Amino acid sequence: MLFPREVLPSLLHLTPAWLKARGLKGVILDLDNTLLPYGEGDLPEAYRAWLSDLKGAVPVYLLSNALPERFARVQRLLDLPGHAPALKPWFGFRKALKALGLPAREVAAVGDQVFTDVLGGNLVGAYTVLVPPLREQEFFYTRFIRMLEAPFRRPRGGVTR
Ligand SMILES: [Mg+2]
User: Which keywords does the record carry (predicted)?
Assistant: First the structure.
């Protein structure tokens, strides 16, 4: 339940072709440290074209544990459906799947954290993808969690791509 299906070196590797090759037709995307550096409100330049391509190919749903005010601001900027705070891993994923209108096996659940993004995605049966956090400068709590996560930051029985 804690191992992702795949580990990618960057979110930019998650392309429409990559999804198509795996039969994936939608994406549930984490926000903080996956798409945006923690606490920041604007998309890194490299990610703008990437997101525009992705949105053009498949439905993308933003699922975040961020506070609602910050999330609403970012959501307006990115023009994506989604909700927050989701209370991942226990809540949010089913609602996201329903909004996407796809079965879990056809949806990539993408994020930087094992105990929220990967566990939550695995619990509903989505295709879980772990990416490295955009910024390592984080709260002490997150760093502590990273330490617990370390053994699981690889696909089960597989290799890191
Ligand atoms: Mg995150």
Answer: Hydrolase
